[in-house]
Amino acid sequence: MADIEYFYSAHSAYAYLGSTCFMDIARAADRKIKHRPMDLRRVIEINGPGATNGLTPARRSYFSGREIERWAEYRAAPVMEGFPTHHSEDITLPNCMVIAGIQQGVDVDRLAHCMLKAHWRDDADLSDRETLAQLGRKAGVDPEPLLAAALSADVQAAYAANTEEAIRRSVFGSPTYFVDGDMFYG
After folding, report:
1. Least CB-packed of 82, 136, 169, 177 within 10 Å?
2. pTM for the whole thing?
3. From its phi and psi, is residue 11 left (phi > 0), alpha (psi between -120 and 50) or beta?
4. Tens of pLDDT along 120-172?
5. Domain total in the chain
6. Bridge-partner residues for 32, per DSSP?
7. 3-state per-residue secondary structure call for the chain
8. What distance in Å separates the CA atoms of residue 146 and residue 63, rounded to the nearest whole number?
9. Spatial distance between the Cα atoms of 32 and 35, rounded to a whole number of angstroms
10. CA-to-CA distance for 184 and 29, rounded, in angstroms?
């Protein structure tokens, strides 16, 4: 079974909106999802198009507001009204919790979706350890070993490698998928 490389951040609106559909597509195509959580802010800083907070207020309102609402409706993926309160918090811990799950052999599809959904539907603070523990349990995994490993040198190295790989391969947003070496965005 060939992999689909999945570069994303655990706080990405568009990764959330496509998550369920993406998992269905991968399953139907008999493809395994290779999760590659990355530091989206660093990737965007280097590869562009620039952080959304650098957009004009009208363009940001559309891209981070109306466009998300449209896709949420189309995908039947509920979102909160407005923008998540904790969206600007550090995204290292949730991304690295997923990487720790990969390294520990946990099926992280559900865990990643749980994080994305909680952030965009329930305004969850993904930088908060207890919130992540609750989300891990909700996803059916023991969160403690993942959280204990998330900030380890090994996991941090994998996170940095994912980020550098995304930069090298011209990823410019989340989610980005590579299927047989071909890049797809959004």
Report:
1. 82
2. 0.90
3. alpha
4. 999 999 999 999 999 999 999 999 999 999 999 999 999 999 999 999 999 99
5. 1
6. 3
7. CCEEEEEECCCCHHHHHHHHHHHHHHHHCCCEEEEEECCHHHHHHHHCCCCHHHCCHHHHHHHHHHHHHHHHHHHCCCCCCCCCCCCCCCCHHHHHHHHHHHHCCCCHHHHHHHHHHHHHHHCCCCCCHHHHHHHHHHCCCCHHHHHHHHCCHHHHHHHHHHHHHHHHCCCCCCCEEEECCEEEEC
8. 33
9. 9
10. 16
Amino acid letter, residue 180:
D
Find tokens 């009208």 and name the residue.
58
CA-CA-CA-CA dihedral for 130, 139, 118, 71, to nearest 10? 160
Instruction: List, for residues 38-61, the tens digit of each pLDDT value.
Output: 999 999 888 876 655 565 666 665
Q: How many CA atoms lie within 13 A of 137 on its CB side?
A: 6
Which structural domain range is residue 176 located in? 3-185
* Structure tokens belonging to residue 49: 């198009």
CA distance 77 to 42: 27
Q: Residue 127 sits in a domain of what CATH number?
A: 3.40.30.10
